[in-house]
Design brief:
- This protein is an alpha/beta fold and 379 residues long.
- The protein contains twelve helices and 14 strands.
- The relative contact order is 0.17.
């Protein structure tokens, strides 16, 4: 197949139009998705690259920051999660974070190049008494010029509307895995509960952030089922986080074998093909990935990451490591795409210096002083 470079449908530099522009579909079958998993690796990545370039700048990555605003003591039984009160992972319970600390973290995130600030609470669902505080938090972060995202568990229709009215841009609620495998991982809420929350978020007019986790002992058919569920929603999630399981001591999944990296990269590529216009986030598990694995994920269509050394309670590559990797790969962040290379580099260097000088006592590190063992999170 010959391909010619062309300025894209969406004005994305480096887009390719040797093939017809990929259609937005909501009728994927299990057989089609499993066929992608069976394709030769290079053929799959080539197809994903074509689709990616039709909708996005292939050398631009969206950068977000995630903060835990309430940690631990969650009543759910998600087998991968150290925040569940049912598992002894050494994670200490924390109260809802003070407003000034959240705002300070949001300011630091903006300084280091993040365009979206995500706030997560370890809840089954937010209580009504917490809603005024949460809506104020959204408004305060929004006033800084950042996109806002929250993950608080299940929402009612009224709660979704309240968050939208406060200015919330995105709501994260993952499906985690296929409907068939779901009961092996979670029993305290149903798959339909999750779908209902996504519907409330869409109905309120917010953008949806929804993806899943791979490496939990699921089959290829289950991975296909997860992607099929996401792609066959009434509207594709605007953000699709693909998480690799980070095994946490004390959780039921802590002894599973590691996932083969090429299978993870395949999942990224297939998500890109099936949801062409969505941002596909390379999410939890990056700390354990080599630079080469991450580079192949970007090549496969991942175009979103979290900056910063922590994802809720889990480790994440240091911001400096991401800056170095982006420089090696010639990747720009969405925020700084209009700057010259020199200005871009200077901005990042200044942000890193400010981050290193920032006070360390703004919020409690629940993992401090505990025995060695990773803390895992998915968003």
């Amino acid at each position: 197949m010959s391909v010619t470079q062309h300025n894209s449908v969406h004005s994305a530099p480096g887009s390719y139009h040797g093939a017809q522009v990929s259609a937005i579909r909501h009728d994927w079958t299990r057989e089609e998705v499993e066929a992608f998993y069976a394709m030769p690796f290079n053929d799959l990545l080539f197809q994903a690259q074509i689709v990616h370039r039709q909708h996005f700048d292939p050398n631009e990555v969206q950068v977000s920051t995630l903060l835990s605003i309430k940690t631990g003591a969650c009543p759910e039984d998600c087998k991968y999660c150290p925040q569940s009160a049912r598992y002894d992972t050494g994670l200490e319970k924390e109260r809802l974070l003070e407003m000034e600390k959240v705002i300070q973290r949001a300011k630091e995130a903006k300084q280091t190049g993040s365009t979206r600030f995500c706030m997560g609470a370890a809840w089954r669902n937010p209580k009504e008494r917490d809603m005024p505080y949460l809506t104020q938090m959204v408004a305060e972060v929004k006033s800084l010029g950042l996109e806002t995202c929250m993950t608080l568990g299940m929402l009612t229709r009224d709660q979704a509307l309240a968050l939208k009215q406060a200015g919330l841009d995105y709501y994260n609620h993952n499906l985690d895995t296929s409907p068939e495998f779901y009961g092996d991982i979670i029993t305290t809420r149903t798959y339909q509960d999750r779908l209902n929350t996504l519907q409330h978020v869409r109905d309120a007019g917010m953008n949806v952030c929804s993806g899943g986790i791979v490496g939990m002992g699921e089959s290829v058919s289950d991975r296909a089922g997860l992607l099929m569920q996401l792609a066959n929603l009434p509207e594709h999630p605007q953000s699709v986080p693909i998480n690799m399981l980070v095994k946490v001591d004390g959780t039921p999944l802590d002894k599973l074998d590691d996932m083969e990296p090429f299978e993870f990269i395949r999942t990224i590529a297939i998500a890109r093909i099936m949801m062409p216009a969505s941002h596909v986030r390379l999410s939890a598990g990056r700390e354990n990935m080599s630079e080469q694995t991450q580079a192949l994920c970007f090549m496969a269509g991942a175009n979103s990451i979290f900056y910063g050394c922590k994802l809720l309670t889990t480790s994440n590559p240091d911001t400096h490591e991401d800056v170095v990797l982006f420089k090696k790969l010639g990747i720009n962040t969405e925020r700084t795409r209009d700057y010259s290379d020199e200005a871009h580099e200077l901005l990042l260097e200044e942000a890193l210096e400010q981050q290193q000088q920032a006070p360390e006592d703004l919020f409690y590190d629940a993992t401090a002083g505990k025995p060695a063992g990773k803390q895992a999170e998915t968003v």
